[in-house]
Amino acid sequence: MANTALPRKMAAANGARRAAAFSEWSDRHFKWLLVAPAVILILALSIYPLIFSLVVSFINYDFQIPGHAFVGLKNFRQVVFDPVARWSIVLTAMLAAANVTIEFLLGLILALLMVKHFRGRGLFISIFIIPLFISPVIVGQAWALLLQRPFGPTNYILSQLLGYDVKISWLTESPWLYFAIIAADVWQWTPFMFVILLAGLTAIPQNLYEAAELDGVGGWRAFWAITVPHLAPMMLLAITLRLLDTTKLFDTIFIMTGGGPGTKTYTASFYLYTVGFAQFHISMATAGSWIFLVLTLIVVTFLVRRLLKAEQTA
Amino acid sequence: MNSRQRRDFEAGLAADVDAWLRGKPTRREFIKKFGQLTGMLAIGGGILPAFTQHLLAQAATDLADPSTPLGQAQALAVKASTEGPTDGSAYRATQAAKQYSGITINMTYEVGLQALDPRNFSGPLWEQLTGIKSNVVELTNPDQYSKPVAEHIAGSGAYDVLDVSPGWTPSLADGGVIAPLDDYIAKYMNTADLEDYHPLYRALPTYKGKVWGFFDDGDMFALYYRKDIFEDAKLKEAYQAKFSKALEVPKTWEDYAQVAQFITDQMAPNVYGAGHFRKAGNPGNQFDFLQQFRANNGEFFNNEMKAQLASDAGVKTLQNMIAANAASIPGNNELDAVSLWVAWLQGKVAMIYSWPPTGRMTAGYSQSDKAINFVPQSTIADKVGYAVVPGNPEHAAGYNKALAADSSNPDAAFLFMQWATSPPVSLARVMLPYALRDPYRLSHFKSELYGQLFPTAKEYLRNLNNSANVGVLDMIMPGAQDYGLSLDRMCTAVWAGADPKSSLETAAAEWDATTERLGVDSQRAFYQEFLKLPGATAANTVEKLGMAVKLD
Known about the structure:
Chain A is 75% helix and 0% strand. By secondary structure, chain A is mainly alpha-helical.
């Protein structure tokens, strides 16, 4: 009995030690178990597609041409030498500049108006930010309905106001179609600027303005000497975020103009969509996306550096 | 797990989570409960959809009142499937398919109204007849091409039956995405039913001597005009005085623009001469250009496969289209197909050319179903005449039912295709008020039941048949999407003021680039195949080939 009991005890002791070691190991590594799903998701949905897209941009991946042969830089060349691609980048830059500038100025004016407390301020702010909650597709559709001839009311209202027959084709006639696209974007995204700038304004210490008032500094000078420097980081943040977003402008273009007339309203996103999902040249669209990403990165890097510098200064 | 057990479990889990958050050593319990919860979700997630699907499958087929023409057509479809004639394709398909009872076939359909037929009628009826379930996958039109290709590359076998544009057949066939049907036809079908297709449509699914699908949607453009305006005595007199000829429904594109301009001059702003769907990104521009270009004897490519758009025919086509635009309703260049229908149904335009649902909407038949009540009621139901589009009307898109090469149930999938496109079943389908499937079989055009759908239905059917006799086809070759996109860009640029000749040259350069990208020799071979089809050019329409179908 003794001969068999000893090994059994030893085995039991070994088992307990192993269980304790495993328990200790699992205690130490339990955190990894918890983050593993997130890591796996990021790897599967972000890192792998990113690497795969890089591969695709160097091979033939076209739903009209069988096979996936290596083609070197051909896909990139096709994009670079496509006049539509070049125009789409120019238009994207122009629309981004116009949209962000107007939205910034309007947002700032609204924020300055709303920074002081008055009766009904909350209601006004609520109304101003409503467009932020609407899908860009719906915004595009609403503006198209307002502007589209012959059913939209815009020309009728303008005719009544101006006293003569207005016959503008807002969605097909240059330069009005650009005004229409900018108007839709400004209507939706000015509130974004407004909210961020209002938050920045309310964070400026009031005693600075009181001291300036005691020193006889006027409102305009106080704006440049106090408001602008203190608000600068928020301004830069708002501009950076909007600029990033505007470079992706697609939804309103798709709904309002369909990229036309001709290719006049092809933004970079619309161009890439057309090449990838209307013509099915997936590898060309992927190469174009990488080119566009690099161009965007240059702008973003510059802006982020300025942003960090402004934060350090503040 | 009963409710008490579930309550205990949840209470225990909550306590464990709280304890875990407080840092107490209950990790194993937590993992155990978490595993149980995940298991429950997995099991529940698996059971619930299957259960829901079963319930949905039990839903009755959406059948019309048996006293109506549609109800009678549906009853005939059921009878042909269950009682025969026993040599009919519908009966053969139903009987042969019963051995596959219990399986599910996955079929792609265009998202929206198109998918209502398999969801409400043909899918449930097929299940009732054979026990085969159907899973309708709704896709946008471009995705009806790209998704099957992507799934084929992945080898997923996700689809069994594909709804594809005839223009995609060569690409899909050569890419191995779809399978030839010849062996299945020989095994299951009464081939006499193939002769029931209008000659324009009969050859559409054929490519390199094989059959790659069943044609299933006669998307023939036709001209719809306001009879009351064309018969107005004062207008006729004024037109005669101005042009020294009678006011008639136009037969040439020059006449079309002239008549439209005359009506606009006389009746605007109450009524305008014409309307077109010219919005960028809509297919209206390319379809209209393609039909008029060929009516003007234009050729797409020369022997070297160089695009011939920038020719006299191209310039003349654009000039005619510009003249028609100028004579049209304000905002003509911003309209899509639905907006144009709205203007037409409200009596704002005197002439439009569009797809066959125009006739059914005009008569107010389509709007009898709530699914299509977003289209306004017709104010012109008894005022409309039908005519062939000047020159040669475009067969604009259409659909083939094709068999996915990766289908795991190819026989069952084929039998559904055979059954759905068989004469009696397809008749019931093209008569559905909400459907966008349009008549394409000779038996459809001759159908007494269809002729009773609305007062002028017989005249409408006759006109669709006559249009098919002289109709021209979309380009059926790889790159069709690219060629079409170039035309759309060209047209909309011209509408915005660009020079027609230089726009034609730009489009021709884009066509050449597309051809070179796809391979000149390969594209030449495809183009030669396309030219063999009746309706490829204005010189080889069904009528010119002596195959015209006369219904009178």
